[in-house]
Amino acid sequence: MIIFKHANTLSRYLHSLRNSDTTIGFVPTMGALHAGHLSLVEKSKVQSGLTVCSIFVNPTQFNDPNDYKKYPVELDKDIQKLESVGTDIVFIPDAAELYPGGHSDLERYDLGYLETVLEGKFRPGHFQGVCQVMSRLLRLVEPDTLFMGQKDYQQSLVIAELLKIMKGNTKLVVVPTVRESNGLALSSRNMRLSVDERTNAGNIFQTLRFVKNNLGSKPLAELKSQASSLLVENGFTVDYIEVAEANTLRLLDELNGKPDLVALVAVFLRDVRLIDNMLLRNN
Ligand code: AMP
Predict the structure, then answer these.
(1) CA gap 54, 74 in Å, rounded
(2) Which residues are catalytic?
(3) Where would you tag: which of 62, 123, 130, 209 has the fewest CB atoms within 10 A of its CB?
(4) What residue ranges line ligand 1, CB within 6 angstroms?
């Protein structure tokens, strides 16, 4: 496994491989790696000749400065984990490497409706930050395939949009969410939860299951309201629990006959914000 800290040396190295037939798979992360991240690397290894993983806690995507400050950093462990699953290249830049001119006045992307709902609404500027860092990483790595998690469902739609805007040849593969045995989606932020809180956080998954199991059995608005109450009863503060069209994220208050739906949730447990989602079949 080769570790690069500088964009120019990484780009030179990858350039030297480009004339060969090696396909490049790319897994961008913010570190504090868990089995969910490693599942993306494993998927990339199956589908690509060479797998590049980046670790960079991107300041421009944090709308809450405290969340940025408290974001877990575990670089040595991360490197060991990546090595253990056979990652070929790790890119660990610092901020000046990706934002040489600073990050106060960066480019903006037209993400349209996608940026106005759910995470876009509750975390203003978040997806602009995601696109700012991803556009830089994509230009550097120029991957054949980009691997991202379904865990961040809306982010995967935003990145699909970014790939269109960038007009490159990179294909996006969205990998299913890896969960703990109680259903809690693995997340770097779970490290900030106590053992009891982690157990309780399994209720997020249970609530999504409740929505899935009861879809169509009662009016959708009532179902969403019951789901929200369940979360509140279990000690969560709810940002949202919504059902949307899976491809567009158009929010629904009643079932509209479209087959592919997704339930999405964002809650706080104490000051830790957790998101999750579940695909639903409306038939
Ligand atoms: P992050 O480090 O949180 O920015 O996540 C890096 C990538 O890992 C993103 O594409 C996430 O969607 C993905 N990811 C995070 N958690 C999980 C999980 N539990 N299962 C699968 N992929 C995940």
Answers:
(1) 14
(2) 37
(3) 209
(4) 29-30, 36-37, 39-40, 148-149, 151-152, 175, 177-178, 185-188
Q: Is 253 helix (H, G, I), strand (E, B) or coil?
A: coil
Residue 96, pLDDT > 90, answer yes
- In this prediction, residue 283 carries a pLDDT of 57
Model-wide pTM > 0.70: yes
Q: How open is the CA angle 43-157-79, to the nearest 5 degrees? A: 40
How sure is the predictor about 282, in pLDDT bands with cuts at 50, 70 and 90?
low
Q: What is the DSSP letter of 91?
A: E
For the cut 80, the answer to whether the pLDDT of residue 150 exceeds it is yes
The tens digit of pLDDT for each residue in 156-170 reads 999 999 999 999 999
218 CA → ligand 1 middle, Å:
33
The answer to whether the beta carbons of residues 61 and 152 sit under 8 Å apart is no
Q: H helices of the chain, where?
A: 7-18, 35-47, 65-69, 75-84, 95-98, 119-122, 126-141, 153-166, 195-214, 220-233
Q: Which helix (H) or strand (E) holds 281?
A: strand 272-281
Residues 197-211 pLDDT 10s:
999 999 999 999 999
Tell me which of 62, 151, 187, 274 to substitute to probe ligand 1's pocket, judged by most ligand atoms within 8 Å of the beta carbon: 151
